[in-house]
Amino acid sequence: MTKKPILFYLSFGHGQGRTSSRPKGGDPGAVSGSFVERDIAEKMMRACYEHLLKHSNRTYKVAFPERDGNGRNLSEHAADTATYRKKGYRVVSIDGHLNAGGGDGAEVWVKKGPSEKNRLGKVLAGYILEELKGIGQNSRGIKTTSDLYWLNANVGIPVLVEFGFVDNKTDRKGFDTDKECKAYGQALAKAFIRYWEKYK
């Protein structure tokens, strides 16, 4: 029996306040000086999207509805991914964020519990941390919870990545240029491709 194709669904944190008439509206997320979580995460997710589309032999699909600069709220993300699932896709959803509060390194959150969906989320989370380590980012590990909205939003297999800390001078040296943000996004895309290669 042929497996349903995988669809990677990309989102960046705090984008849901944006509209075409108010492109910088809404919650900016964590802010430290000129470092704004929402804007950095958007650059990283856009680079991830572009890298995923370049894979010549891909059988996976990619959706990034926020690529136009307009955000989505959680109910809209849930509706979008439900549409893809009805079309027969295995949806894997990631929400990109940056942290604050005095820590360092990247961490990936998956939903707590023994389900197969949560197990697959942990596999992807491990790949993400390995790829980020490959470009020099420390790992804070895989975290599980039942309290994060993204993980409870019925968006397929949900994963939430915190790429680093905007208020940590060492961390943000890794993503303080567009080129470095692109490297983070490409590392994320490589983790997705590893996941696809394992489960396609």
Poorly predicted regions are: none
Mean pLDDT: 91
Query: For the report, how would you describe the main beta sheet?
Result: 6 strands, mixed
Distance between the termini: 12 Å
Q: Outline, from the CA principal axes?
A: globular
Note the beta-strand portion.
15-25%
Structural class: alpha/beta
Helical content, roughly? 25-40%
Number of helices: 5
Q: What's the alpha carbon Rg, rounded to whole Å? A: 16 Å
Number of DSSP-assigned strands? 8
Strand order of the largest sheet: 4-1-5-8-6-7
| Order of helical and strand elements | EEEHEHEEHEEHH
Protein architecture, described:
The protein has five helices and eight strands. The mean pLDDT is 91. The longest helix is centred in the last third of the chain and has 22 residues. With 200 residues, it is α/β, with parallel strands linked by helices. Helix 1 crosses helix 5 and helix 3 crosses helix 5. The relative contact order is 0.22. The strands form two sheets. It has a six-stranded mixed β-sheet. Strands 2-3 form a two-stranded antiparallel ribbon. The chain is globular.
